[in-house]
From TrEMBL:
This is Lsm C-terminal domain-containing protein. InterPro entries: Lsm_C, Lsm_C_sf. It comes from the Archaea. It holds the Pfam family Lsm_C. Transmembrane segments: none annotated.
Length: 34
């Protein structure tokens, strides 16, 4: 699933996937949690 696919998607499923993707990216940017 590409970033564009998530943005183009609509509905609760797409929102959930986008939320998980953003959380994954935010966690990756935190070296303290790793």
């Amino acid at each position: 699933v590409t970033e564009e696919g998530v943005v183009e998607g609509t509905g609760p499923v797409a929102e959930r996937v986008k939320r998980i993707y953003e959380q994954f990216v935010s966690e990756k940017k935190k070296p303290s949690e790793a």
